[in-house]
Amino acid sequence: MNNLNEHATHTGQGMPGLRGTDHIGLTVPNLAQATDFFVNVIGCEQFYDIGPFGGEGDWMTTHLNVDAGAIVKKLRFFRCRNGSNYEVFEYSSADQKLAMPRNSDVGGHHLALYVDDVHIAVDYLKSHGIRILGEPTVRTAGPSAGQTWVYFLAPWGLQFELVSFPNGKAYERESSGRLWDTRFPAN
Prior knowledge:
The protein folds into two domains: 13-97, no CATH class; 99-187, 2,3-Dihydroxybiphenyl 1,2-Dioxygenase, domain 1, CATH 3.10.180. It has four helices and nine strands, in the order αβαββαβββαβββ. The protein has helices at 3-9, 31-42, 59-64, 118-127; strands spanning 23-27, 45-50, 53-54, 71-79, 85-92, 111-114, 131-138, 148-153, 159-164. Strands 1, 2, 3, 4 and 5 form a five-stranded mixed sheet that branches. A four-stranded mixed sheet has the order 6-9-8-7, covered by helices on one side.
């Protein structure tokens, strides 16, 4: 059995009842700016808001691991087509760090969005003034062969990635297991 197949089939028991990712939580400096970006540029659907809350006692520290005086000014839920939901927070906190982590920083991250054609999506993002990081990379070897990807930045610096692999990735020819794939949401 090759390593790809072993990894894909030997996942352990894991958490009872786990079905998958419900949402990804993000903190932004300005919720109105983030809403404009997620709805009018990315194409997410806005659902509902919660807040403000926090700032009293130790609830914020106990439940969210933030400064006891932190306040969630508002949080807003978005749905992103056939992927995960986003829970987007705007906080006020005396100890808040305003610099976005880079991918190389501990806690660094990015959100990858599947698109049918990376080049068309890049042109669209450029028409909205979005900063694209380099040119699309085409994978021709290794387990990700067949994938094209490129990073871009939200107006406040959050890192995103566009990915596309309309004919699948090379690992699929060597493994019966599959990564979750937005092209086939029921897989």
